Amino acid sequence: MTGHAATVAGLLDVATDRVGRALGLDKREARLEARVLAAHAWQVTPAWLIAHDTDVATAPQTAAFDALLARRLGGEPIAYIVGAREFYGRRFEVSPAVLIPRPETELLVELALARIPPDETTTVLDLGTGSGCIAITLALERSRARVTAVERSPAALALARRNAQTLGASVEFSAGDWFSDLTGRSYDLIVANPPYIADADPHLARGDLRHEPVAALASGADGLDELRRLIDGARDHLRRPGMLLLEHGYDQADAVHALLRSGGFARPRCWHDLAGNPRVSGAELSK
Ligand code: GLN
């Protein structure tokens, strides 16, 4: 790239510019990404990078960094390159087999936690667990909760199990398509962040989404196919009053509330994410 040996700080500066321009990130985000890539390439901490910024990078260091940088410049999500993403203060392993955990989903976790008393045994079901981020967080934050997580993709299920083990969470995992393997079982609380993007939505062809499993994102012509199936099935698997909490698209709250009402749920409510978008809806079964 530079043709002569560069310092650590010099490499990071060049990478910051390139990442910023290629991905349309502001300087602060681009610098953060450059640091994350370098730390991963060299297996060092962010503090090491600061302490060693005037060191001249070795040829192998430069090559390892350039290889990761090229992947990022090609649009690969940084979480897949480093193999991890932070969620609710914990590090989750991720791979292209799972959706990358999103900060919006922390809202769903907060709402669920508010409904799981710390000192009681509550049964909780997380449908479509992906990386396991929701189920594992709930299990770790509420040691008395009994958390079950369902996932139909074997690769995702294996990864979720690994995350639970690494993080020391006790979660019962089950392979299945929503409720297919849960005949006769019911829960106090059911949560899900299902696929909710319309099949033809151009966002699927942009940014990180291009690289994520389409089955975790897309859900029919109006994006509501899986939410419909889920709301349909939930009724038979909730203990009364039982609560269903669902993440959905910013423009789907009205449609989801209509589905909830016709599915036998009372007084649906909606909560907004930090960006101010309606993001999670919930309701209890009507009497
Ligand atoms: N439950 C996982 C998450 O929230 C996966 C969701 C999905 O694949 N749609 O990240």
Automatic annotation (TrEMBL):
Keyword Transferase attached: yes
Domain Release factor glutamine methyltransferase N-terminal: 28-83
Residues holding substrate: 193-196
Reactions mediated catalytically: L-glutaminyl-[peptide chain release factor] + S-adenosyl-L-methionine = N(5)-methyl-L-glutaminyl-[peptide chain release factor] + S-adenosyl-L-homocysteine + H(+)
EC number: 2.1.1.297
Keyword match S-adenosyl-L-methionine: yes
Entry's Gene Ontology BP terms: methylation
Keyword terms, alphabetized: Methyltransferase, S-adenosyl-L-methionine, Transferase
Pfam families from the UniProt entry: MTS, PrmC_N
GO terms assigned for molecular function: nucleic acid binding; peptide chain release factor N(5)-glutamine methyltransferase activity
Protein residues bound to S-adenosyl-L-methionine: 128-132, 151, 178, 193
Domain Methyltransferase small: 112-201
Coiled coil: none
General function of this protein: Methylates the class 1 translation termination release factors RF1/PrfA and RF2/PrfB on the glutamine residue of the universally conserved GGQ motif.
Similarity comment: Belongs to the protein N5-glutamine methyltransferase family. PrmC subfamily.
Record protein name field: Release factor glutamine methyltransferase
